[in-house]
User: Fold this.
Amino acid sequence: FLSFAYKKFNPKILENQKKETREKIFEIIPKAQRVEEKLLKDKTINFVYDKKTQLLGYCSVGEGFGYQGKIKVLVCVDKDFKKILGIDIIEHSETPGLGAKITQKNFRDQFKGLKTDIQIKVKKRKALLENNEIQAISGATISSESVTKIVNETLKELRKVLKK
Assistant:
């Protein structure tokens, strides 16, 4: 029964995930009018354009493991690949009230404006934007570090794919 249900509902689940990802792209990049999905080197990259078909940036989903399980993160960068425009959490199973705080706006907004050419670091105390740092969620350092690791790896993959 489970394999039947999986075969039947998996296409709809994937379609809903794509729709949700596109909606989050429009939230992260408000000037976006069109998103074009391309498969490059086995990596799905979303090219984001304004209404004049001018490229605004790139978005891609990365995944890894947090404290409780898999985390999927949408990472969007500017067209020059110099800074992060924003991130969003697509999927997670972190602890409610602790690690689940990775979905909160104040945590996600720490990534806005960070540089893409150096590693992002996690600090338990006050983080400095100029040092490419984010502040860990109190009581959820592992989840904070996991999201940061996923963002760093996604940036590395994006850079590799887009340079070719």
